[in-house]
Structure formats: structure tokens, C-alpha cells
Amino acid sequence: MGRLDGKIALVTGGGSGLGKADCVQMAAEGAFVYVTDIDEPAARAVADAIGANAAALRHDVASEADWQAVYARIVDDHGRLDILVNNAGIVVVADPEETTLDQFEKVMRVMCTGVFLGCKLGLPLLAKSASGSIINMSSTASHIGYPPFFAYSAAKGAVRSMSKSIAVHCQDKGYKVRCNTLHPSSIETPMVQGAEGRTGEVHEIPGGVLPAGATGSPSDVANLVVYLASDEARFLTGGEYIIDNGLTIRP
């Protein structure tokens, strides 16, 4: 407890899935968390469950105006930001030939443009932190071929590349801000449930070491988010952390 005491955090897509787990665990470690989501009632439910250490905001990450409004609120409330978790995402199940231009552009707006805007507009605020951390959610889809998730893979590849440039940029500018990416495989979230055709059907994830091919728990990702957000990870920037139970190393 207390690993993030006094830190101010923003988590996009915080109303469900990985974002919800990130918000809950960071708040439990002492951070004040802004839970943002295009689904405002979902964000509010998470913030209400957390209590005094959270606030909910409606947030379309593809909108520059929404990003400006969110950051203006944080400036008014706290004057700085210590942790930015770009988590919001969507998935379209379609291979390279089936994917429409509208589908491709929508996915890129959320997970590529959204991350760009979050980092670009957030850096002046993060630069005021004594120890800032940007954590961008990518995927194992940026490392291996997933034809059925073509647009998703493209967006996550862009996140992977942008994050390395942001990490170097922060060092070159003298900002005390680190930037890393997380690359989960299948995690038990509403997005994965929908992609697997079992919307609303939740699978219980057992404890202990899991067998090959198993689906992970949101807490498996949130645990690493807390670490990367903390000062314990001060020497880690520009890294990509695969959370996949060995998926990408298997032949």
C-alpha cells in the first residue's frame, strides 16, 4: 500500500476492463485517479466505487477538444499530472481484405490518434511532475500477425513506435517523464468477450500459474501498471513489456 501516494493519475477507458482494474489498483496504492471514458455512467460507477480518491469524466479520446477539457479540469484541480495511462480501445474483427476504410479509420482514431493527443497535449502538464510516467496500452498484436484483428494490430503497432519516440523526446527535453508500453495477450475483459462472441459471458480466471493458452486477469496487467507508475520504475523508459503467459515465445 502507498506506492503511489500523492500522485495524480489519468486513465482513459477507465469504465471497464483493463482501465477499470488500473484505476482501482492505483487508487488503492494512494493515487488520485481521473477515470475517463466515452461511457460516462460506467466511468462514474468506477469512480463512485473507489470513493474520495477518484473523479469521473466523459472523454472521447479521438476528440482534441475533449482532451483539452480533461486536462483543463486536472489543471484546475491539481496543477499537474503524474501518471497518464492511455488505455481506451476498440476492436473490429475483420482481416486485411474485409476491413473497410471507415472501420480502419475509426480504430486508428481511438487507439492511434487518441494516444497521440493524450501525449502531445499532456506533456506540458506531465513535465511539471517530479516523477512522471506515461503508460501506453499496446498489445501482442504489435508483435505477431493477427489477420482477424488487422486494424487493431495496426493501431497498436503505431502506439509501440510512438511511445519510443516520446520516451527519447522527454529525455532530450529534460522532462522527468518516462514512457513505456504494455503488450497484453488475451485478458478477460468485455472487449475480449465481444471479440470471442461471448458478450457478457465472464470466465473465471483461477489463481496460480496458468497453463499455455490461458486467458489472463485484468489484475495481471494492473499490477504492472502500478509498478511502472511508481518511482520504483525510475530507470525504465522506452520499454515494451509483454504480458502474455509465454504466447509470443512459442513456436
Automatic annotation (TrEMBL):
Record-linked InterPro entries: NAD(P)-bd_dom_sf, Sc_DH/Rdtase_CS, SDR_DHRS6-like, SDR_fam
UniProt keyword annotation of Oxidoreductase present: yes
A GO molecular-function descriptor: oxidoreductase activity
UniProt keyword annotations, A-Z: Oxidoreductase
Keyword Oxidoreductase applies: yes
Top-level lineage group: Bacteria
Family: Belongs to the short-chain dehydrogenases/reductases (SDR) family.
Protein name as it appears in the record: SDR family oxidoreductase
Natural source organism: Allopontixanthobacter sediminis
